[in-house]
């Protein structure tokens, strides 16, 4: 049923746009969520897009803009005349405006800020002083705060006055005369309290807060750990803004994507809309790096050219050994990278983890080693070859697992994001390692292999 | 400063546990968040753990249990006598209880459900009838609903009566006489409305909802798209529960971890606490699969044994070509897998994406191909070898990119999770492909290569 209702409004909207029926379009727009309008907008042709933008009032347009992706957002903004752009930016969440302006040149930024209301522009300029991906950049100033000497009745009054501001947040924050955060009270408790009570008597004084320069990943963690719906941002003890849970959701998604991008070395922020040339240039650095590291593997093999030319069958097991070692490293890496996000790692935890992975490597190595030794013996009819391949695999799997564990831990200790280690570092390190071990052992047994 | 305060309470708590000072411990526990107690608990020795459990009252213990990881949670529960376990389970969120019980055998489940209050046990049993990872399993019944004929004043009365229930949720849901969801009102609007107004006159009638059988990933998407803090669950139109945003945060984290596990073939739910033997058995299936697929690569090489034995230098470039092709496939795969989460993909989008990746493959292939051709020529002094290696790389990179794009799209179409494709499927498919292309071209030029 939901599906049908959805198709119906969409059909009505498309029809209204095609026939330039402003009123019909606006009626539909009234009833639909900004996210859905944004989805439709992305599917429209140029003319219909222009018409849709024209039919949206400033407030609706601001909401829709917040739902569009980065590049689409800029494109829309550039289609508006300066005055309208200013009005719309005034109505958008300030953190979204800051994100948007950051992608523009200084001239365009100044022009757009100039078109905004002075107070809103000031707030955005202030947000832009915080580094990207910090708490300061996520915060909004659209929330309600009261002095600690307010009564509950006065608080309700202020809520009435700032009704638009309080739309999605369910707490009133309490500050003292120095603007320092001293407490919080939920709307629920405002409802349940008597109008004459002083807010400082009913508020909760223990408030989880973050400093403005806190990394956004840590911010999202706090939301998860303490099941928050909003989180005040402070400088010293002074309340400067508020982060809402929808931002935490976005951050979680963003950070997970970043981890996956790094683990798969797929390059920064490539989505379905990215142009081929840009996507290619973002991926190329990793690939060129891999190319050169692959050549290192090649030169190792060339060192063992004599061994290889005597027993060509050794080449048959090369991809398997290198692939297995690379993969076991990636497996460990993934566990460590995700684990580091959700918990603190001290020496004790690290040692335990390394020992665990050592055991895992040993178990996996012995099982796979025996398996491949038997297969190699049956396939090539040489017990010595089976022994060489099997023992190589045991050793490389143990080392591979350890490399995948220890390297990200070291990088984490050095304050380098361990996810970056993946694609190139671990996989190819393990590649090189596995070839050295394999051909090393094979060369030692060369007389018996022939 | 926060750091110091943290260390202080922790020190006080550890001290109290060591010296068996029940009151001091309880004073500290009062002041600290459940998450923090859970963190400390995990670090304690057996005796201190037992003492801490003893010092926690039922309610606190329920909160702490919700913050512990799966296996730890079970361990704690098994340490409690049946009666206390029942009390604690009564106080936990029902969806958490259901998750917990599911990991137990039917006998232990029945025993624990038997120790709970009849009404709470019934609700949990009901939750357990929904499949894991659906909306029905995430929902809570701890929220406030009123009939559509209630006045605002009566609503506030009900909120007062169910004060414990309404703790974290900021909306009152409105149902008609058939228990069908007909509206919602925020606490904010309750505050701003007059006590005599009828709730049906002030409520919002447009309520985003999900069916109980909806997949949890879709649930998290709705929270993200519409910036929700809670989401009602319905069967037909009947209101059966509510999902809160903290569950959506957990789902997002969980789903991201699952994607990473699958992309890195690292095996299901391995964290820092997993025992080596369990971690090894979870990873082994992938590795054994990879082993056999690696042998397929090996047997392809063995088909070209003659070519290889004539020009051993061909082996030097094998790891590079296979590695590059595998990696370019994983890059495309990661983009597709993450993209599929955040947007709908119809034929038009899929075609555009495939064309984009074709271009990317072409650009990357040509650049890397030329680079390696020059290097191979300089290193081995053979222009033909350069040509063979370079042209192989162009072809394999294009095919590798396309495979990494098309395969997950097909799997998605067949309702199979595309992330599963990665580790084994894409990487090794590309491995095999690259060897076939490389040795195929080399064999064609063999007379000129020698």
From TrEMBL, chains A, B:
A Pfam family cross-referenced in the UniProt record is: MgtE
Q: Does the keyword GTP-binding apply?
A: no
Q: Where is the CBS domain?
A: 139-202, 203-260
Stored CDD domains: CBS_pair_Mg_transporter (cd04606)
Q: How does it assemble?
A: Homodimer.
In terms of NCBIfam families, this protein maps to: mgtE
| Name recorded for this polypeptide | Magnesium transporter MgtE
Q: Which organism is it from?
A: Exiguobacterium indicum
Q: Which gene encodes it?
A: mgtE
